[in-house]
TrEMBL record:
It holds the Pfam family Pyr_redox_dim. One of its GO terms (molecular function) is oxidoreductase activity. Keywords: FAD, Flavoprotein, Oxidation, Oxidoreductase, Redox-active center. This is FAD-dependent oxidoreductase [Lactobacillus sp.]. Transmembrane segments: none annotated. The keyword Flavoprotein applies. Residues 1-307 form the FAD/NAD(P)-binding domain. The keyword Flavoprotein applies. Belongs to the class-III pyridine nucleotide-disulfide oxidoreductase family. Residues 331-433 form the Pyridine nucleotide-disulphide oxidoreductase dimerisation domain. The lineage of its organism: Bacteria, Bacillati, Bacillota, Bacilli, Lactobacillales. Its cofactor is FAD.
Length: 451
């Protein structure tokens, strides 16, 4: 059997890896339109801050390594057309300008998403950058040490935007973060968390310009000099646009069914409207465990999970994609946070009723001093007010306690209730934890509201 995989990021990589693990004699052709295989944009901050020195190390795999594993790797080669009736793809080789057709038995689309370009005047000016992909990483790295860059404006306060803001703040720049939403990071955390993080960012010269809509990029001599919103104008020697992403699916119109956002429609087996064409990654929806509905959750973990299940299904091992909880984590200067599932701030949009309890305490018993690994921790547990089913949680501290959220993710997927979680057996040792883990404490508090 011949399988063609399009795209080399998380979903494409895991599809190839899954096929090799299950049926290594499969003929695999792996295509990357760019000149670099499997760059990981989620590792960009580590490179920009100097934790990772070599940008070429921010990847899953190399062409040489995958070729040794038996994969036919093609970089700088674009799949420009798909003919599902004849099971062929048209390939443009950007290295030498040649074109050809290739046949397939199964085709996997991991086409991903591209940065959303704000449709406002001035978007063509120089020094308006994105934060996605190896080429942008190299350009951004140069700007962190450019003495002519003093004021940086970041558009968007999701993870990518906040990572960009922290990178340039640490580089000694003044940063303004503009967002349409009323709070920074509001899609990931409720106000009890974002108020503390916003104050922390302010101490590092990051200004929050929320509830504001970008109206124009203003320039001089072809370079951006400021950004105008509906409320103010902010000086900008550099703009980092992280205002969201859009599915990279223009080429797929008329080939497979797309929804009104351009996302590829797939079934539980990752099949598109063409049964021999599968799709994974940011251009698709994933099943969301708290609601039982599909949702757009563009995370590497979800793309890799999809890739593994696409591999199973195309090899003839029927395996429905398991539901996910949407778990994620990030650090903002000294704070570490993670969240999963439903938040108070997202419950209404998701169309479900929820209740929440917030617990603030210390990570370890109070007699353990801060310099021995103790500090304040915030934990918010969200649950169904009728039956107590666990729907989500958020946690934050200057101590890294983010892994607790993995337990909540499992609780969501297992449909556990706060009654189950209230007395779950977690270990106790003063150097590590409390007699009652904070998840126990929150669940006990939640259980009391249901009585």
């Amino acid at each position: 059997m011949k399988v063609i995989v399009v795209g080399s990021s998380h979903g494409g990589y895991e599809t190839v890896r899954g096929i090799l693990a299950t049926q290594p004699d499969t003929e695999i052709q792996w295509y990357e339109q760019g000149d670099f295989l499997s760059f990981l944009s989620c590792g960009m901050q580590l490179y920009l801050e100097g934790t990772v020195k070599d940008v070429n190390q921010v990847r899953y795999a190399t062409p040489e390594g995958m070729t040794k594993a038996g994969v036919h790797v093609f970089v700088k080669q674009e799949i420009s057309k798909i003919d599902p009736n004849n099971r062929t793809v048209h390939v443009i080789n950007h290295a030498d300008g040649t074109e050809r057709d290739e046949t397939y038995d199964k085709l996997v689309l991991s086409v991903g998403a591209v940065p959303f370009e704000l449709p406002v005047p001035g978007h063509e000016l120089q020094n308006i950058y994105a934060m996605r992909g190896r080429d942008w990483a190299i350009k951004l790295k140069a700007k962190t040490v450019d003495p002519d860059i003093n004021n940086v404006v970041v558009i968007g306060s999701g993870y990518i935007g906040i990572e960009a803001a922290e990178v340039f703040a640490k580089a000694g720049k003044h940063v303004t973060v503009i967002d349409l939403l009323p709070r920074l990071l509001s899609l990931y955390l409720d106000e009890e968390f974002t108020s503390t993080l916003t104050a922390e960012m302010a101490t590092h010269h990051i200004t929050a310009a929320v509830n504001q809509q970008v109206q124009a990029f203003n320039g001089e001599a072809g370079h951006v000099v400021s950004v105008t919103t509906d409320q103010a104008t902010y000086p900008a020697d550099l703009v980092v646009s992280a205002a969201g992403i859009k599915a990279n699916t223009t080429m797929l119109k008329g080939v497979v069914d797309l929804d009104d956002h351009g996302l590829i429609k797939i079934n539980q087996y990752l099949q598109t409207s063409q049964p021999d064409i599968y799709a994974v990654g940011d251009a698709t929806l994933v099943p969301f465990a708290p609601t039982g509905q599909s949702a757009r959750i563009a995370l590497a973990t979800n793309a890799r999970r999809q890739g593994r299940f696409a591999a199973k299904n195309l090899l003839g091992i029927p395996s429905p994609m398991p539901a996910v909880s949407g778990s994620s984590a990030l650090s903002v200067f000294d704070y570490h946070f993670s969240s999963t599932g439903v938040k108070t701030g997202t419950s209404k949009k998701l169309g479900i009723r929820s209740a929440s309890v917030l617990v603030t305490d210390t990570v370890r018993p109070k007699f353990v001093p801060n310099n021995a690994g103790n500090d304040k921790v915030w934990f918010k547990l969200t649950f169904d007010p009728d039956d107590g089913r666990v729907l989500g949680a958020q946690i934050m501290s200057k101590i890294d306690v983010t892994a607790n959220i993995n337990t909540i993710s499992l609780a969501i997927q297992a449909r556990l209730t706060v009654a189950d979680l209230a007395y779950t057996d977690f270990f106790f040792q003063p150097g590590f934890d409390r007699p009652w883990n904070i998840m126990n404490v929150a669940a006990q508090k939640a259980l009391a509201t249901l009585a």
